[in-house]
Amino acid sequence: MIAPGLAHLRPDTERIVLTGVGLTAPNGNTLDEFRAHLLAGKSGVQPYEIRYFGKTLAGVCQFDALRYQTRKDVRRGTRAGSIGVYVAQEAIRHAGLDWENIDRSRIGVYVGVTEHGNVETENEVFQLRGYDYDTSFWSHHHNPRTVANNPAGEIALNLGITGPHYTIGAACAAGNAGIIQGAQMLRLGDCDVALAGGVSESIHTFGIFASFKSQGALAEHEDPTRASRPFDTRRNGIVVAEGGCLYVMERLSDAKARGAEILGELAGYAINTDATDFVLPNPDRQAECVELALRRAGLHADQIGVVSTHATGTTTGDIQECDALRRVFSGAPRIAMNNTKSLIGHAMGAAGALELAGNLGSFQDGVAHATINVEELDPECELPGLVLNEPREVGPVQYILNNSFGMLGINSVVIIGRV
To answer: Residue 251 above 50 pLDDT?
Structure first.
């Protein structure tokens, strides 16, 4: 029998668990719906058009923004804020917190973002054009919309949270970084409940599409559902997506005291930096990040049941990550590796948190969802246990390892264990 990791050796006051999930993804607005659509291979990528850039493809969310906000709230705030409010409210409901009687000064909000403010700035400049660029018509809402803490701040305002709130800028590693920050603040005693994860409004800024296009890194395909194809020889870039996922995180002792259902435990994590290039990944540093997370969790590579890959569908990025993963997991024959971006696109700051959520169901059903759209596997992307096109029964899963990497060389890894 494989020995458990180190998490169970810590006192319950230091063990951090997930007790609720709220999300919106291009193919689902609840954890159960998202999981079912991943297992069914249902893509959320669709045709999309944005001003100045024109027709393209994107992962678009279809949640009800007015479920928890008024029309005035939505008009005054931001898309990222609306996503954040929706997923925070859903996470609280899912966790079964007694919201009316909870001490809201002891709740922290830690939201990872790739970028924030581009959408609002582009919109304001566009509107100003109709007034001959007279800045007296510039919206007085612009500053609170574009400050870096906005998504977390809108959540705090909506829910009446008086504890700490801030965003974590970590490029496309931000979803994992939000989870890590939440755990650290719980262990420091800064809060008793953390709302942590990531959000992204990226599809609403034409600049992101234009930039990826200029890099030759924006996916194209006549069938939108087949455009996002990590690991395939004919992959041709990223499908930009929006989305959000926040977790209710608590100390195990507190979760036990209120009889909460525990979805998983943070067994280990790591963040490091390539320090080599603005956009090109470094497989040496990525492998080191995975190894550091395993070491902190007290685990061996062959104890991981599912690896959620970051791969975005770019030629170089996919190969570099696969290189890193082979170094760590080449001797782990029972492992399953998959990719969620093939189904929803790249949700940027929300990606890590969403991709983890999509794999949590493996603890209950022992199934790994597939990477879809792989018609011809790139030989340089061969990985041990890669799950392609159809879900795979993998048996009991004790640990899930979630990769999430970003520009300027930031790497993050989160390991969640079954409790």
So the answer is: yes
pTM (global) more than 0.90: yes
Residue with tokens 């956009």: 279
Q: Which residues of 208-223 are buried (b: 16+ CB within 10 A; e: fewer)?
A: bbeebeeeebbbebee
Report pLDDT for 3. Answer: 57
Domain that holds residue 120: 16-257
* pLDDT per position as a tens digit, 385-404: 999 999 999 999 999 999 99
Specify which residues 55 forms β-bridges with. Answer: 49
**CA–CA gap between residue 319 and residue 311 (Å, rounded):** 9
Read off the DSSP letter of residue 369: P
Write the CB contacts of 28 (distance below 8 Å, at least 6 apart in sequence).
Answer: 34, 35, 36, 37, 44
Which helix (DSSP H) or strand (DSSP E) does residue 292 occupy? Answer: helix 283-297
| Same structural domain, 405 and 298 | yes
Closest by alpha carbon to 382, among 321, 332, 300, 340? 321
> CA separation (Å) from 400 to 33, 141, 237, 250, 303?
20, 42, 26, 19, 9
332: domain CATH number is: 3.40.47.10
**Residue 231 in tokens:** 């690991």
- Cβ atoms 200, 244 nearer than 8 A: yes
Residue at which a domain ends, from 257, 291, 308: 257
Nearest to 267 by CA among 1, 2, 14: 14
Among the residues of 31-117, which ranges form H helices?
Answer: 31-39, 71-76, 79-95
Instruction: Write down which residue in 228, 257, 286 finishes a domain.
Output: 257
Digit-coded pLDDT (tens) for 128-184: 999 999 999 999 999 999 999 999 999 999 999 999 999 999 999 999 999 999 999
- Above 50 in pLDDT, residue 23? yes
207 and 82 in a single domain? The answer is yes
396: in domain: yes
Residue reference for tokens 């395993």: 294
Residue 66 pLDDT > 80: yes
